[in-house]
Amino acid sequence: MSRIYLVRHASPRVEPATPARAWGLSPRGVDEAHRLAGAARTWGIAALYSSAEPKAAATAAIIGEALALPVWLVEGFEEQRWEEWVENADAFNAAVRHILEDPDTSVRAAETASAAATRLDAALCIVAEGPSPAAVVSHGRVITAYLARALPLDDPYAFWRAIPMPGYACIERTPNGRVRLIEGFRGIGDGP
Prior knowledge:
This protein is an alpha/beta fold. The chain has a single domain, classed as Rossmann fold, CATH 3.40.50.1240. It has helices at 27-40, 54-67, 89-101, 113-128, 140-150, 156-162, and strands at residues 2-8, 47-50, 71-73, 134-138, 167-173, 179-187. It is globular, with a radius of gyration of 15 Å.
C-alpha cells in the first residue's frame, strides 16, 4: 500500500494572453510554496513528483529544496486540459461544474474529467512503484476528477472549489488501485 500526498500547486501568476499551462508562480505563490515546504517536513516523504507545468514544478522545486529531495517530473500530472481561455469567471465555473458532474462530456473543447482521471491514475501507478510515502504536486481539477472516480465524491464541483491553493491531502492507494482518503485537503494556514 502506498501513501501519497496530493498537493495542489501554489498561486500562479495569471497571464490571460498566455496559456494557463505555461503560468509560473506569482510572488505570493513563491511565499506560499515556502510555507507549504514547512508543512511537508512533517510528511516524512521519500519521493517527490510533479506536473511539468511551471506553477506546479516551481512549487515542487521549493518543497524539494527544503527537504533535500529531487523532483521527478511525470507526464500525466498536468491539469485537466482546456484549449481556450474563459475570461468570464461565471462561465468558467459553469463549464467546470458541467465537466466534473458529467465526466464523459467535453465542454468548450476541454478534456473530459474521465480522460483526466485516467491520465492521473496512470501517473500514480508510477508513483506507487516507488518509495512511500511520496508527494505529487499537481492541479485542482485533475485531482478532483481522479478522486471523484476513485472515492467517489458527493459533489465534485464543491470539492474542487474547496481545495485550498496551495493545499494537500493524503491518500492510501492499494496495489490494485483502490484509494482511501486518509486526510482531507488542508491549506498552509490549517496547521501541520
